[in-house]
User: Which sequence fits this backbone?
């Protein structure tokens, strides 16, 4: 009642011992019974916990209150007029407060709302006499009768974009936009009396949009939207004079795809999955947007390093004693709490719900445990990140890297306590210049991010046949690429164009190859399934990756600097900047100086007018005499002068002094440009720390990292369902106790058919022999 922190019965005594605070409000919750015959609504929105979305089956509770005084646990009823007013006021404030649980009940993976198009209100329509009939539509340029779009400027009906497998349209609608610039199109078949449900696409904005004047724009082409009704895929609706089956919108089609093949395969829906309970088999409650967190943390705590650090070697009481006054903001405390929650088995018990056993349509696979809600852990780990602190869906890979970074910071200076090091390894890039000389750049990483070479698909014949003849049935056929091809793509030579050679003092073409300087205890492979299309629109590759249970990456170890190789001279792109720096024309400078101007000012005038002439330099000089930096030196001894205060600013950002100095030189002393230069030249930092004159592949940065053989066994898979990282669902499959187990939020069961070829992130454990 002093700090307003809440504790379970086992932990409240620890708080009393630590703080001496004796008075506590005891809140007891009793679960309300829910009718078994409660009707389930079909979802119409790709979301959880909102109207139209998937039901998150939130449980209702009845609450009773009492006042407890420690250390003897004396209990007094509440409300009671016998309690001091100060206590009654404190209790009322607590009960009125909106807790973290209530704040996080808003669903996280609701798609972003459409915005009104900038082109809608001023759209100019062409009166060419086009009247669109109520049915019988066909593309104006081909025979397509589905996926048709009506251009709202000229009334042209054209087919949509072609999919990779040959389905969809022939790109005639988007090609028409490129030819004419007419911006808006509406998908025929999605127009109903509820015009907000119509699928309108803005080509210049490259997004689905809203058109407030859609009724007016449709009426221009004779379309009476009030006579159109949407028809679900399994329902037929008869309209008075004619039957119009409207098509699925893009969002509905995405929902349909997510709830069909991928959804069923990854979640193993329809399988007789045996529920599992016990230590190490505890589910995590979906907070509305936390499936990316749940899937990642389940795999993380299946590793020996995190199991040992936050469960085996650290009790809850020890972590609480080490925590600050507010343990809710301490990452070490919350990770220990999460580790004990997941691994102890204390919370991994079946839900005790009365079921109607006469209803044989309910499969046993729906039985599940209650699981634990990771609210405090999510609040702590997301506090320093602007995206993870929101209620939107996130990328599991970005969260994994952010999580490891926070763990490393928490255990900073104590490598022996840092469990994140089990994932860390060294990478070495070898750059072969056309001069025959080489450079070695080294860096550290937690994940091996792999491109998926679609041209290496093992089922190319089938795919080519589909492109030629179309799909014969509804079977999902995708490119199937071996993992070995993805690993080979990482190590294969890559040409670097416009590489500045310090040996040749000019730009040339170099060849880069990559290898690992150390092999981690746990190898994490990220499959680059999300690529950027034109306009920076993320797209997910429809592809299978054949991943074996055992992989051997021994051949990927870097060999380091070899005898007979010659290193490139020290330097980098900043040298090119120095060599290309304009020099003032002496004749212009002499003439200006003779007029009484300072030598430095005359040099600047000549340089800033590209030495075009005395008159141009004079005009520049007269208009810039009051510039604050007019007296700043241009160069000193051929080298750009760098202010130490500017270096100190970059040092405060965490950059090394040598790199800060080089960046400021290359950017003319501009701190903002220098920061951009550092991020755009990541190898510069590595190059300055690389001792490439030795054949030893272990650098200073590699010291203390785990290392060993290159054979690994697959132990975990994080799979993603959906078309982008901003929507969908994540599920984890983990190899435990000799079998695969599915962790789907709070549902934990024995996996029957783990989706090894559909993973987004793969976790491998090094084999001891």
Assistant:
């Amino acid at each position: 009642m002093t700090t307003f922190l809440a504790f379970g019965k086992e932990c409240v005594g620890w708080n009393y011992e630590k703080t001496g605070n004796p008075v506590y409000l005891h809140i007891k919750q009793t679960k309300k019974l829910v009718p078994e015959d409660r009707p389930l609504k079909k979802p119409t929105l790709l979301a959880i916990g909102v109207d139209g979305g998937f039901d998150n089956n939130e449980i209702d509770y009845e609450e009773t209150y009492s006042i407890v005084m420690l250390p003897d646990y004396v209990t007094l009823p509440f409300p009671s007029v016998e309690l001091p007013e100060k206590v009654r006021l404190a209790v009322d404030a607590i009960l009125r407060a909106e807790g973290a649980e209530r704040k996080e009940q808003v669903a996280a993976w609701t798609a972003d709302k459409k915005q009104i198009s900038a082109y809608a209100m001023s759209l100019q329509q062409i009166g060419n006499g086009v009247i669109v009939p109520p049915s019988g539509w066909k593309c104006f340029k081909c025979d397509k009768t589905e996926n048709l779009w009506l251009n709202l400027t000229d009334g042209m009906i054209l087919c949509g974009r072609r999919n990779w497998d040959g389905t969809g349209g022939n790109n005639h609608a988007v090609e028409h936009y490129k030819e004419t610039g007419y911006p808006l199109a509406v998908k025929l078949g999605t127009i109903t009396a509820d015009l907000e449900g119509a699928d309108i696409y803005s080509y210049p904005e490259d997004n689905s949009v809203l058109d407030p004047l859609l009724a007016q724009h449709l009426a221009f082409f004779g379309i009476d939207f009030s006579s159109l009704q949407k028809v679900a895929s399994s329902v037929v609706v008869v309209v008075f004079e004619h039957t119009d089956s409207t098509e699925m919108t893009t969002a509905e089609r995405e929902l349909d795809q997510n709830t069909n093949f991928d959804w069923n395969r990854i979640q193993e829906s329809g399988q007789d999955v045996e529920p599992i309970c016990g230590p190490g088999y505890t589910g995590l409650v979906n907070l509305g947007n936390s499936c990316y967190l749940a899937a990642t943390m389940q795999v993380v705590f299946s590793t020996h390093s995190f199991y040992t650090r936050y469960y085996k070697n650290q009790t809850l009481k020890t972590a609480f004693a080490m925590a600050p006054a507010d343990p809710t903001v301490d990452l070490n405390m919350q990770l220990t709490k999460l580790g004990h929650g997941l691994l102890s088995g204390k919370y991994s018990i079946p839900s005790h719900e009365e079921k109607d056993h006469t209803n044989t349509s309910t499969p046993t696979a729906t039985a599940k445990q209650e699981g634990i809600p990771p609210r405090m852990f999510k609040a702590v780990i997301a506090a320093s990140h602007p995206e993870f602190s929101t209620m939107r869906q996130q990328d599991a890979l970005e969260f994994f890297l952010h999580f490891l970074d926070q763990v490393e910071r928490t255990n900073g200076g104590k490598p022996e306590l840092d469990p994140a090091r089990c994932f860390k390894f060294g990478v070495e890039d070898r750059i072969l210049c056309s001069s025959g000389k080489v450079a070695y750049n080294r860096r550290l990483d937690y994940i091996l991010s792999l491109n998926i070479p679609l041209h290496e698909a093992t089922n190319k014949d089938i795919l080519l046949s589909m492109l030629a003849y179309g799909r014969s049935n509804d079977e999902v056929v995708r490119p199937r690429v071996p993992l070995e091809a993805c690993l080979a793509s990482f190590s294969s030579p890559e040409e670097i164009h416009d590489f500045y050679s310090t040996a040749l003092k000019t730009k040339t073409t170099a060849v880069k190859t990559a290898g690992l300087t150390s092999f981690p205890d746990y190898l994490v492979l990220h499959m680059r399934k999300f690529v950027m299309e034109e306009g920076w629109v993320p797209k997910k590759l429809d592809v299978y990756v054949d991943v074996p249970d055992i992989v051997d990456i021994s051949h990927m170890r870097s060999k380091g600097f070899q005898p007979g190789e010659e290193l490139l001279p020290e330097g980098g792109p900043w040298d090119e900047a120095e060599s290309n720096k304009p020099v003032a024309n002496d004749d212009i400078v002499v003439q200006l100086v003779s007029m009484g101007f300072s030598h430095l000012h005359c040099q600047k005038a000549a340089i800033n007018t590209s030495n075009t002439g005395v008159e141009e330099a004079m005009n520049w000089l007269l208009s810039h005499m009051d510039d604050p930096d007019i007296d700043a030196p241009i160069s000193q001894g051929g080298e750009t002068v760098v202010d130490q205060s500017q270096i100190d600013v970059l040092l405060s950002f965490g950059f090394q002094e040598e790199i800060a100095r080089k960046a400021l030189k290359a950017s003319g002393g501009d701190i903002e440009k220098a920061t951009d230069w550092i991020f755009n030249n990541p190898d510069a930092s590595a190059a300055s720390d690389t001792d490439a004159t030795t054949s030893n592949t272990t650098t200073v940065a590699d010291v203390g990292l785990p290392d060993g053989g290159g054979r690994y066994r697959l132990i975990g898979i994080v799979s993603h369902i959906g078309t982008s990282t901003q929507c969908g669902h994540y599920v984890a499959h983990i190899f435990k106790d000799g079998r695969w187990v599915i962790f789907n939020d709070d549902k934990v069961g024995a996996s029957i058919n783990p989706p090894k070829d559909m993973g987004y992130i793969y976790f491998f454990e090094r084999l001891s022999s």
